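User: I'm writing a tutorial on reading structure tokens. Could you give me a worked example: one chain, its sequence, then its tokens, then a sentence or two explaining what the tokens reveal?
Assistant: Sure. Here is the example chain.
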Amino acid sequence: MAVATLLLLAAALAVAAPDWTDCPTPCRCKWASGKKTASCRDGPFTGLPDTFDGDMQVLDLAGNSIHKLGKDAFQRAGLLNLQRIFLKGNSLREVHRDAFRELIILVEVDLSNNEITSLDPETFSGNERLRVLYLSGNPLGQLVEGQFPPLPHLRTLDFESCRLEKINPNAFVNLVALESLNLKGNKLANLSEETLMNFAHLKSLALDGNPWKCDCDLRGFRDWFLSSNLRSMSLGCAEPEELRDHLWEDVPSEQFACAPQVYLTPYPQVQAEAGGNVSFGCHVLGDPEPEVTWMYEGRPINHTWLIVEAEEGLLDKWVNISVVNVSDADAGVYSCVARNSLATLGRNVTLVLPEVVTATTLSKSDPGAVWWASVAVGIAVTGSAICTLAAVCCMRAKNARRRRQLKASVSFTDQEKKLLDVSIATTTDRGAGSCEALSPDGDGLMDSPSTQPPPVHITIESHHRHDGMSTLPPMPMAVYPPPPEFSSSVLPSSAYGNIFISVAVSRDPTLDASRCPDLLDLPHRAKPVYHGMATLPRRPQHSFAAPKYDNMGPRVTAGGSSTLSLPDADVELPPPPPPPSCTVALTPDFVSL
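And here are its predicted structure tokens:
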């Protein structure tokens, strides 16, 4: 009775329990190769279905539209016992690094023919039993260093037609058991021998269908590949042009070469100071090792005046030169030329010295030179004949205005007229009885330096007695500036700016003192040092006030006497002494009185 009850209970539970073969439409769940298999090929799924039995071992979702595998995607679907996953042709774009986490018995994954552009290096972390991985047909582009986590049992890896252009030499460093690698149909131009040479178990290597560039970067891998037992078919060169369609085994190893590359520092021009030093750096790469030569203006460098430093025997080296005590003879074009068995290449650098520009200083009192300088400036600035003509006309008009202003601005008082007459008539050398003659020509405003009258320089001299009786020391020479009316700052560019008035005196006792008064021997001076000065009287500051003493010390008056101060305007002055025998008459063109 008890046994019958147990059998009935077991039958009831069996009927109530779901069958693992019950799959969502259009999937079919069945035994295949001794595995519980769910086949959902070309279905409508956009994500992982979560209605499969938890004991499912094989999941085939090829041809669906699953675009993304999120974090713990299979764990959330309750499929922790999966051993094989097929997601081929799903337009899959994104695979989370933890999508396959906790699938500890996973041995095969097929992600081929999708749109995966990159895989995180930790994507299959924890799937240590993984043996086969298909990634062909994905636009991966490159494989980075440590592209895969440690997968000690991975045997087969397929990257056919993945548009690979670069594979890091350490991309497969964690795949120690790799036996088969498919790299067919990619865009690989070179590959390092370090990428695969340490795989002791590698038995199959497919490399055809890549545009191999047969240069120095591929030479090492070419030599390793031809010496290995992995050649299933011959490989050919796509570059360079002279080796196109040549098989690797038909091209000698030394012809897998790289043309020289030359980089100059500084470049392309350097400026140095005369007498200084300058250095040029030439960085050269090439394989075989390039021979480097420095040239100056197309000729080999003269090593007697250049210091050459070079690192020999290197495929990547610097060849530097230094020019010491730079001069004009060193300026020019320097060339760094590198050559090897494949090609010759050079780079140029120009050494220049700063230009020295000289200019002529023009005198303010030279209106002709100023005129020509204005014309030159106009030509340099405008660069046209029209602007030059305008500058000339402008300058001539300005000079004409100055002439009009000059004649209208010069006036003198009665005392100034008397002092001016006496001063200009004074001789410059009483002993010789000669004087400098003024020869005015025109109105005093010359159009050229050749017609301008020479400046009148009348100096103050002190003569000694020739009989040896004098005990007075020689008087110091002194030259004083002209009055303001004759200053070039007041009358710019005029002939009056060249008249400097001074007086020459003598100590000869035979001369009449009243005729030639000794202006320097003042009785109140303790020391025979001349500190006086000859100026015109100061004009009154206000027209309604009487002239005042200015307390400025001794003066030379119009009458030729020396006093301590000037008298008031109403004091009658004594008549002036007769002028010296040598006088010069002034024309009205020189001074308007």
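What the tokens reveal: The chain has a mean pLDDT of 73. The CA atoms of residues 117 and 140 lie 4 Å apart.
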